[in-house]
Amino acid sequence: MAYNILLVDDSSIIRKMLTKTLGLSGVPVKAVFEAENGQQALEVLDKTWIDVIFLDINMPVMNGIEFMHALRDHPEFIATPVIVISTEGSRVRKAELADMDVKAYLRKPVSPEQIADAVQTVLNVGR
Amino acid sequence: MASKIQESLLRQSATVLEEWAMMMIDEPKGGLETFADGEEFLIVEMPFLCDGKPAGSTFAIAQRPLCNIVFENVLGSVEGDEMTDVHRSDAFRELLNIVTGHFVSDYFTDDAVVVLSAPTFHVAQRDEVEKIVNAESAYLIADEQPVVFTYRPN
Predict the structure, then answer these.
(1) Which CATH number is A68's domain given?
(2) How far apart are CA B102 and CA B119, in angstroms?
(3) Is A111 part of the contact surface with chain B (CB cutoff 8 Å)?
(4) pLDDT of A127 above 70
(5) Fold (CATH) for B4-29+40-152
């Protein structure tokens, strides 16, 4: 099975890097969708089935925390798997995200192996 | 003797340059004099809050050849046209973003709640750079190109 992936990050360089890293990770990808902030991500989710979301925290318009609240308030997306990729390591922030059912939190920079492991974790599938 | 700030900036920036930007790191023999004369400087600034209060800014300062290498090592060559300051800005802002995330974890610890602002990029002359760097700045040579990271508390 191949997955629809949504990359949510205001940095175009990070979205390009993640696309490249996903390609090296061995994760079967059907299509990669991109959003510059949480608001754009919600618009993508309204139109497209997404299997996994890679989410940044610090973004303009709607940041990652605000997006997670909006996502989990929506019955259709209450269980959509989310992998947070951030430069921050705050324990409080990680706990807050874990409470919103974020099962994987990766610190930038990330390797293809970390991406593959995180996808395996959030989808509960073997590689 | 290096201060705690300088030691942390040196350690974190060297790790990110080596592991993320895939560059070879050397210790410079001097400060700003290691930068090329007559060439403009590229500056990225990243303000941040710590536990809800403004905690100052981090800065990354380099010249175009370093930013070209960072971009090419991370993303490959530019498709079509020549590399511009837009490409350099993307790569250099992300470099400081990652360095700052690791620096604040190291210096303030992960018990602090740090909120990083979007990094800003601009081109500057040497006199502006001289006002930003301080005794705790971290100078490095990456792939034979100088770069300096600074933290300026509020």
Answers:
(1) 3.40.50.2300
(2) 15
(3) no
(4) no
(5) Chemotaxis protein chec (3.40.1550)
